[in-house]
Records
---
Amino acid sequence: MTSTKVNVDLVRERAKCTFDLKELIHFVDGGEEITSERKAFEETVLAIKELKDDIPEDYLSHKERYEIAVRKACILRELRLRHDQNKPLLPERPTYVYNILPATIKDISPFYLHETMFLATIWGLMNDEQKAEWLSKALDMKVIGTYAQTELGHGTFLRGLETTATYDPETEEFILNTPTLTAYKWWPGGLGHTVNHCIILAQLYTQGKCHGIQPFIVQIRDLETHIPLPGVHVGEIGPKMGFQTANNGFLGFKNFRIPRKNMLMKNSEVKKDGTYVSSKSDRLTYGTMVVVRVNIVNDAAMQLSAAAIIAVRYSAVRHQSQLKPNEPEPQILDYVTQQRKLFINIATGHAIRIVGRWLWKTMLGVIQKILEGNLDQLPELHALSCCLKAVCTQDCTAGIEQCRLACGGHGYMNSSNLPLLYSHTTAAMTYEGENTVLLLQTARYLLKTWTQILEGDTKLNPTVLYLLNFAKPTDYRWENTNQGIIKGFQAVAAGKIKTAYDTASKHVSAGKSQEEAWNLASIQLVEASEAHCRVIICEVFSNEIQCASNTLSPNLSKVLQQLVELYLVHWALEKKGDILLYSTISKDDIPALRDRYEELLALIRPNAVGLVDGFDFRDEVLNSTLGAYDGRVYERLMEEALKSPLNAEPVNSSFHKYIKPFMEKAKL
Amino acid sequence: MTSTKVNVDLVRERAKCTFDLKELIHFVDGGEEITSERKAFEETVLAIKELKDDIPEDYLSHKERYEIAVRKACILRELRLRHDQNKPLLPERPTYVYNILPATIKDISPFYLHETMFLATIWGLMNDEQKAEWLSKALDMKVIGTYAQTELGHGTFLRGLETTATYDPETEEFILNTPTLTAYKWWPGGLGHTVNHCIILAQLYTQGKCHGIQPFIVQIRDLETHIPLPGVHVGEIGPKMGFQTANNGFLGFKNFRIPRKNMLMKNSEVKKDGTYVSSKSDRLTYGTMVVVRVNIVNDAAMQLSAAAIIAVRYSAVRHQSQLKPNEPEPQILDYVTQQRKLFINIATGHAIRIVGRWLWKTMLGVIQKILEGNLDQLPELHALSCCLKAVCTQDCTAGIEQCRLACGGHGYMNSSNLPLLYSHTTAAMTYEGENTVLLLQTARYLLKTWTQILEGDTKLNPTVLYLLNFAKPTDYRWENTNQGIIKGFQAVAAGKIKTAYDTASKHVSAGKSQEEAWNLASIQLVEASEAHCRVIICEVFSNEIQCASNTLSPNLSKVLQQLVELYLVHWALEKKGDILLYSTISKDDIPALRDRYEELLALIRPNAVGLVDGFDFRDEVLNSTLGAYDGRVYERLMEEALKSPLNAEPVNSSFHKYIKPFMEKAKL
Ligand SMILES: Cc1cc2nc3c(=O)[nH]c(=O)nc-3n(C[C@H](O)[C@H](O)[C@H](O)COP(=O)(O)OP(=O)(O)OC[C@H]3O[C@@H](n4cnc5c(N)ncnc54)[C@H](O)[C@@H]3O)c2cc1C
Ligand SMILES: Cc1cc2nc3c(=O)[nH]c(=O)nc-3n(C[C@H](O)[C@H](O)[C@H](O)COP(=O)(O)OP(=O)(O)OC[C@H]3O[C@@H](n4cnc5c(N)ncnc54)[C@H](O)[C@@H]3O)c2cc1C
């Protein structure tokens, strides 16, 4: 059982691969240098014995798991402090550094919110003086914090938050209060028992007036004893679908006082006497939100890639059923239905990673313009990041679940790691903007653009420029090519935006208010937004691979082109109803798409294992009995099972306590 | 916080309801008598203090949870023994009796396999003599068993099982062996540490020949000490996405001997001298499989109904965002996008429950015929139960997840119960026949039927009779009515069966073997099977509600008709691509469908809460902070959180152990 030979099927699959694996790995990482850097980092982290588990955490109690997570988070944080110094901010870096977590803490770190939103908010919303006071303390973990926005009663609707911060000019302090049960902060990661500070969003009251939501930095626990300060009611919110070790917490205040200078004053200010000086523009705060959403897009791509590796390798190792009588059982990877489940997820893993990187670059460009005083592209960037976050998390969640189900019964085992990947990715459909709400935000931008077009304005932002081509009935002819399909998706998006626009207008004409009309058209608005987002993903994926082809070797570039085409044809078939409705495709074109789709599956088949090897996840990061590089699937399943504390005793005490007395009663 | 008043929004919603709630409840249960019986049973069970938890199980370790589950399972089993006596087998009963589990064990009972497959197999596959020996012992729990079919290496492909049972005429015993690692039994519920017997499926060898898979009953633990017998290697397989307390196990044998009479001999026999006498027909064993699949369909419907109750009640209580400036935040149930997420799941809950009951009645009819010696309808029943199990579990899984996501952040809390509902229902997509594999089985039947039709045979079974209308190009006109939509789905199913048939034929003509052609057409075959299944669900749901309308009051029957129409229009829009391709609908008909869909949402809106109240789940069964009858959502969320053992101490030990030293190091 302790052989370390690589499974013969995988050896055979790898021998078939038509491209240079190293080249793909460097392409995925973003360059050879980054690959080396990543590997060195992984090497360092994974050499630390203290980060390994004796007993898999799934067997432990909620409390034990939290305690282990804290221990590991401290080790990792220290390492990061040493590692991250003087490293430039590359679009590739956040993901690969974060990606070490599945190999160590497994679930979410109780410091996760500290490392992301807490630091980002200090960075983005404090004025220089405040930054000087807090930033290095936070970076060095002298204070540990979280970002507390959501309350029991309000997540989506920020203006509805109920926590109050009332300014008292006598003492130059704010008094924080939680006036109702629904005003309790609820959800912030690490808030339960880990952090000693948090950024609190609260309704600011001064000089008898409410000035809306403002951020405050608040110490909630004593730095020496960690005991909650008087006036603070804090604890954890209990078990969830995932995020078991994230220590999400609740928090209430009762006349809790903080100094005036604890309001984050980059955009707005409260003077000593209580005068409120309002912000010039709060649009700058979009910045942080976009960064966070780009990270979510990248994480989702990584998680889907992990699921694809697991499911493809397992499908190469697993043999089941007979294709032909008297022949050996085939690898399940040879069933065309199985290929359909898996290959699109390899393609989607690439597509979304590439889109995430493109979004990051786009954002850097927009930020540069902002620094030059030009805010014109901000609304477009916001609209883009909303729909991309929504659609990418949705696609990746669905893809991971498809990969899990494709592993049959064993995919349901935690040791496959697929259940955890699922529960993390699906959470991202809700946090940082609930997906429907985000799609509606993008829809608002699209409707504005459509109005612009109807008014004859042709100066549109780059990502919506294509809509101009569809403002009037066009006579373009459907073409069964990549570009033809993308054009078809553009026609669908334009058609859906127009339909939604017309529906809303119809309701207004019929006497409804703008807001009611918006609500009545909202199903169509969401669909329009999704269709627009599909255009973006298809275009970016296709263009970026096209560009990369100039420098990649012909063999690799051919395979990547196949993935692009698979992605396009897959979505054309998925959305054939829309394409039939809004583009010039005819019924007779559909069978050709279907044939092409099936051909592509066959073309990709020989490279399937090579392609997932190309995502280059170390076994520790993948953390899956089904997905390890050597394919020792059954050995690992058994090895993991034998770690169960229940298996340490031949007879569990419940037999003598409950079952035996019960059987004896039955005997009478 | 301990008020027991019902939330005002729910009071208002209930006042708006246009039908008699009691009437709906009786309709859902299958009659007033059954409602009373169910309620009495619930009353009895829920009065038992020992079935209540001090600390929610999610906080405990894997081992503790198992031990609690065993304790509760014994109490429940005793109760069932008393309760079930002399009760006739009604199609309604299995579900409502099973339905008490979410209120007691919460997760799956370690006796679950004993109560289902173990008993069913004894019943179905033992001869009379064997039944006399085993049945009452099993019913009285003098022996506790499970059903061990799946192995590490084989689930779907039974013929591939590797466990061997070799007959030794000298001692008149079978010798059981697990020749390889992949031959280990893997998955059987209760096998880990609970059962002392199991039904083992193994390759029978006698007189030097293999006679394929046969069932054996095997004692694996000592009845007094519960210690595994020599030659038995048994344990649990470890944590899963759900089924934490099901105690799924592994099992290997080393030269383990059992008496000859332990082979289940209803269909086949091994004589004393080792002569193998083969079965007349193993088609009779279809029976058990169909019963199990009907139960799965019913369970899935119940679980989706529970999710719909939770999400609809929560959406009535939850207020978020502003529709109009300066107006109070609306109930999220008023967002049309939210209605789209939820109302289809109310309709689907009814549709699938009704289909499950219809399938049960159909099965009883077929069994009656079989007893009269007529096996003609068996293949149809088998094909039906395969695709219905697959499509219903798929729809319910997707629906539950949609309900969960519709609850925003709080839907991710375990205390909403939505994560557990999801993990149970999705498991049913895999066990008792993996869904793709089942759809392909139905496809085989459909292709046979199509061949029959092409050969001019018009004597088809009832559920495929509709295909005759589409054998030749027809000139029926699309109608925007319920019957029109059903006809449209029939056209789609027929079109897809024809396409799949043609594709397979094309590949055969091109020189592929039948089996290769089957595989190459398999994506289309799966889709054909799904389309056929959608026809069945739509027809049965529509017809049964139509019939019921004769006896129901006009008000209730109107609302149920709306649900039927919503179901039909929803799927017509979902499948508009197929309808555009295969039916005579034109592009211009689609907007009418879309308008009708939006109208239906508005029509159902006032009755939404009434409709989910009509599923009549007691709070204990629903077990959800978000879904309780009184709508005290936020109070319950907080009450549950306060039960966390982490919240019992103001400072967790990990602060002093890890965080503080870390902060101090940072200070330097
Ligand atoms: C795992 C996890 C971690 C989290 N971590 C943090 C954290 O660290 N800090 C923090 O502050 N918060 C955190 N949150 C909270 C999170 O940000 C919110 O849950 C999220 O913003 C969604 O808001 P909600 O829960 O209020 O959903 P709701 O808005 O209540 O959504 C419920 C339903 O209402 C619908 N809806 C709401 N408004 C509209 C509208 N205007 N139009 C149409 N439909 C609408 C939604 O589409 C959805 O279907 C976390 C949440 C999760 C799940
Ligand atoms: C929660 C749970 C409880 C269970 N309880 C029990 C129990 O009590 N007793 C017991 O004996 N077993 C039990 N099982 C095992 C279960 O019956 C099997 O997992 C199930 O039959 C699926 O088989 P598999 O795991 O071999 O999947 P596989 O067949 O390996 O499926 C993997 C993939 O291969 C594909 N595939 C396989 N064959 C074909 C084909 N011919 N054509 C096309 N595609 C194919 C599938 O579609 C799937 O995508 C349980 C499983 C679960 C998840």
---
Amino acid sequence: MRFFSDNAAPVCPQVLEALTEANVLDTAYDGDAWSKALDARFSELFETRVHALWVPTGTAANALALAALCPPYGGVICHRDSHIQNDECGAPEFYTHGAKLMLVDGPQAKLAPDAIDALLGTIRDDVHQVQPHAISITNATEYGCVYTPEEVAAIGALARKHELGLHMDGARFANAVATLGCTPADLTWRAGVDMLSFGFVKNGGMSAEALICFRSEFATSSLYRRKRAGLLLSKGRYLAAQLLAMLDDDLWLANGAAANAGAQLLATAAGDRLVYPVEANEVFLRLSKEEAAGLREQGFDFYDWAEGEARLVTSWDQSEAEIKPLADAIAVLG
Amino acid sequence: MRFFSDNAAPVCPQVLEALTEANVLDTAYDGDAWSKALDARFSELFETRVHALWVPTGTAANALALAALCPPYGGVICHRDSHIQNDECGAPEFYTHGAKLMLVDGPQAKLAPDAIDALLGTIRDDVHQVQPHAISITNATEYGCVYTPEEVAAIGALARKHELGLHMDGARFANAVATLGCTPADLTWRAGVDMLSFGFVKNGGMSAEALICFRSEFATSSLYRRKRAGLLLSKGRYLAAQLLAMLDDDLWLANGAAANAGAQLLATAAGDRLVYPVEANEVFLRLSKEEAAGLREQGFDFYDWAEGEARLVTSWDQSEAEIKPLADAIAVLG
Amino acid sequence: MRFFSDNAAPVCPQVLEALTEANVLDTAYDGDAWSKALDARFSELFETRVHALWVPTGTAANALALAALCPPYGGVICHRDSHIQNDECGAPEFYTHGAKLMLVDGPQAKLAPDAIDALLGTIRDDVHQVQPHAISITNATEYGCVYTPEEVAAIGALARKHELGLHMDGARFANAVATLGCTPADLTWRAGVDMLSFGFVKNGGMSAEALICFRSEFATSSLYRRKRAGLLLSKGRYLAAQLLAMLDDDLWLANGAAANAGAQLLATAAGDRLVYPVEANEVFLRLSKEEAAGLREQGFDFYDWAEGEARLVTSWDQSEAEIKPLADAIAVLG
Amino acid sequence: MRFFSDNAAPVCPQVLEALTEANVLDTAYDGDAWSKALDARFSELFETRVHALWVPTGTAANALALAALCPPYGGVICHRDSHIQNDECGAPEFYTHGAKLMLVDGPQAKLAPDAIDALLGTIRDDVHQVQPHAISITNATEYGCVYTPEEVAAIGALARKHELGLHMDGARFANAVATLGCTPADLTWRAGVDMLSFGFVKNGGMSAEALICFRSEFATSSLYRRKRAGLLLSKGRYLAAQLLAMLDDDLWLANGAAANAGAQLLATAAGDRLVYPVEANEVFLRLSKEEAAGLREQGFDFYDWAEGEARLVTSWDQSEAEIKPLADAIAVLG
């Protein structure tokens, strides 16, 4: 049983079905009926007028967002353990044309306003130093923790004060919303977020993520950048259809909640072994080499993380029955 | 009936089926069984060792290829009417970090060796002028014409002489091979091609094209550039599966031939109205405004091209019965 | 006697003297008294508030200007024979991060409004095509001809209508102003120019050109880009001092007029041989191979240009006595 | 008396004189006699065949070197306190087209092989993470300390083992060589350095630094990149002449030694207050706010550095008599 990554999970039946339904003749690129419906559907979800662009990866969504918010000669403040810094092979630098990521530490892979303030205090306001133009936060974070709407709003206020754009990497946005029980609006634009990478692939989608632009001036340039990056698929209806299927009946939220529930089963079993609070679908726990080997012998697969730590990721399709054996095996370790 | 674009056509049943079959748990990105099979399967097709990378668009394939062949301070020789110059919103400039496209004219959107030579003759060999590093040709061309293996080889020889890389934009490679009856090998690496954008989406695929690297040094850098560009989908098996399905039983070639056959029906009907020889699945014909309006009234949709010209594109899924009405309507115009 | 290039000429005594005077302790970069005086001095010259940045080359000035006016995904309309297209090794593409130069033809290397309009008419307003964001004109042009204030204003009006920025490459701005007898203001911002590369090096300077920003929003980003490009010399006072010396007593204008006068001597001698009207310090004339060889035998050096054409460039330091021998030798050819 | 920066110092008389001597007609750009002499003169100094390119700033030299050594998708290992990271407004990212600086800590702003090794150990060898392609060290360092030839060689060996290029930022190379008493060759290519930014401006020059390429493949691309960056001054002879004047009679070394001697005077006075060993022309010392204010009242100018620290920089032109008052004032503080 694999607890490696939510990317390994299969695609949700509703998404697959949507592909079949979209398999008719229509206009190329994003001129089709499905793509044209996105702005309205996401605007409804977010209770405000947004522009929604499908893109094939979260990396693309993140990089496009940062390119909209930060000029080539600027900087983006982010966590030292963020995906944009460590796992995207320099995509932010590519899309922004060389902006600098400015790294901040903080527990749970979260940025705290005072840590951002401290970084800002070290930057001389002259042309010799790269000046920050944006902040990027990840919700849920790399360590499966969430920012509350209030926490985001505190960062949003700081961003406004310093005239910085605010991006949210929401690869696991659904998991965060499911945990928090808040509205998508409260967690984003009402808290000052300008651009959101809204993830669907880890959550049951196949190949479509959404870049949500809460300010229309960023949407226009992003449309050109998307094409210029080779991200404008010629049969876009198959991406748009996935997103629409995920929005129908709030499937995205149900899937996020399902994955979270699986993680809670494991968290309960792990008890004191937990490295971070489990607030999404990732469980980081202390595990000795021998313990890890023992679990693997029983057929459970997962990543080693830091020395003496392991990461378990649950996904939308794992039932309690599928997860329970691992939970039991962990509980047995004591 | 739409004759706008082969991008508007639906996806082939075999491809859809392959998606369903791939809908199981596997490793993320390109670590899955399908993705890992690509090099071998394409190597077999091309009768030599190649590296094959799936990408979601032809624009991405083209831009990655050019980035591998040309440094930021170099130039790429291409036709004035090429897709990379006119229809990719500057993707080559983005991926190469600012290389210059050097435009050459020629009938049928084809580059002739002497036209390339003439351009080369105008470039001073000093640091003030951008120096060419690559040639890019399109086969079949923007105007539905083909380069024969001999024609490609003549350009390949010129490329070698001047130490230029050679890229082929094969968005309609299947159509070209189907028309020429040659092997894929003869039309590419045996003729000096270094990188091929092998198109599948216009030919019945959904969202996967192949970047074929005939020299391994270009594959390595392309793997990093693909990730960095946000093109490495996290569930890559759904792209690889499409490509494998298209290779099975040479579906790609059958689809290309089917689209070509439809174009021949139209070409025969068009007779003297043809602007270019019809050698793939595109038909350019002279059509007055009134004639075009008349055809549209009968329910046929297509693009106006230059003044007094129209473009008709046929696709893999159109039967003779579906095309005949348009052929007849054209024949009636006289 | 060399008529190759005004870059080959020595530096004006006033400029050399200014270097010696600046050879004292002062603040680094552009914090010194000389650099700080530039905005005011150029504002006076241009009769409006401008920002003036020293840079070491005209290529740098041009590229910085274009980067301010055009986003990476945009295009810059310019003449096919412009310096930015042919002689800067892709500097505009480097600084703009891959914008596309959109080439227009026209006699005397001048852009005419209707030729620009014709180009604009060919560009589809969709994300597949690079959209123009700026126009760049050269005054005096590559062929030694000038745009009048009215001609610039016509282009400026077109630029405003289409929301395009307007840049003037003024490598030989002094020569143009000297010929036209107009004010610098009339030839630039009053005619709609947003950014001017004001050349001094060809006109007696050593290593300092000025980038003039007529709109302050462009100045701010240019200050960062200048540093980021390694163009912010650490002892900037030596560049600023050159510019100030050239402005003193309108030395720049006197030098431009002197070079122009030399060219007129040659133009008169050349008569019907002239390829273009001589309106600055360049003379293009028809010259057979034998005639060219004959002149070279007499000790005159110059560039061959197109087949059967030669280019003669005069500079600020050449007296009538120095030029007359060549004028006489040309006149003798008949 | 200013102890702010060696950039504030005036230009050496020999350099000024060289400018006057170069003030004759010659070929433009780097085609003149002075520029052409550089390769040979620097090859002699370095006891091996090198290519030497003049550039107007150290930032430009550094950025060109990194662009030659590292592809856009790669990384450059450097010290957290290095100039390329903190003081060049992202020039490395601009010239490399978005490579990532990978920061390492270490005392005295020096990189130690084991610290580099530790960083390398954290990078997964997959396409998701930026892979390092080069190491950049600064000698003398930002804190006025030097790497010995043996220390450089240890890093050079590590670089070779991991197939990384090695760049040395030698803004104060002269100061380092003067302190070490070694040959320039021993401190560079014999220790594995591929590219050197050889600084002259802080050391008495006006506007010319040298980029030294120890491997010819890097020189070719750098020539194009220099032009493309707008760094190829049209009257290059005035830069080349400065460098030649500095090489004559080892003026560069004498100037470096002179500045070092001044720093030693201050170091002796500072005694236990020193934060770092004084091995070049910079002195970092502990100084309370009150003490700093006291010194400033006496007419000494300098930068505050970290909390409770100050930086004093001496330059080539300061005699013992000029420095002694400050040394005495510091000694008095006890």
---
Amino acid sequence: MNGSINDSAAQQQRDEKFMRMAINEARQALKREEVPIGAVVVAGDRVVGRGHNLVETLQDATAHAEMQALTAASSTLGGKYLRDCTLYVTVEPCVMCAGAIAWSQAARVVWGADDPKRGYTTVEGLRLHPQTVVVRGVLAAECEALMKEFFKELR
Amino acid sequence: MNGSINDSAAQQQRDEKFMRMAINEARQALKREEVPIGAVVVAGDRVVGRGHNLVETLQDATAHAEMQALTAASSTLGGKYLRDCTLYVTVEPCVMCAGAIAWSQAARVVWGADDPKRGYTTVEGLRLHPQTVVVRGVLAAECEALMKEFFKELR
């Protein structure tokens, strides 16, 4: 379900503000020559977790931006459920991260660029927690530009 | 795909040996009043990673046995891919862990008890890496007995 249709202008502005923070995280990843994906978790107006992709740095296939941000948020808040939180991530989560988001029961997930290859929505039947509202396409062009920059340099 | 049909008696014995180690990990979880699930990662005949469910202890919804074991194995081996490794886990992996296993490109995944509620095979269209052989039902009764013991005590 896409919640963006009913989002107010204030909500949209807020989403863009936090997505810019996620983009800053993605830039940190790019500096480390990692696939540039960043994430922040927000409770109210407070950033309670952040992270960027560290798969190459840590040589750990599970070290995605979302995983870092969710774990950081749970640590900050002292609880495994993130029911009042919004996760912002620059690129559509993969299956692993979608599973983690589902366990966290996050209230909202907001992403920038779709991932038509590895995004969880490519798997038919895969859903987040029923309470979780999904908003896609926030600052998508900026999020995608970072990814294109990275993959262009690889060639 | 279930690879168990062609498994030799030696392979089966080997699988049971390592599943017993995963069961020991699950017992560690039970002692901490965690859902008793344990995992080990094996390369050749060497255990390179192990872990048990720590969701309550760490208050982190991502702290599943498989995640701990995969991250430990990558750390031991110094690489993000676990292409020569087998992951043993007492209960069928969830969506998150299936996603992590897919990224790791593990050669084999062996589990004990099925999880008809949260197991990744309940999601239509969700697959591990095409190279990964899946074996299910190894020491299933023992793995399930631990789960039943835990949930009986909760009631």
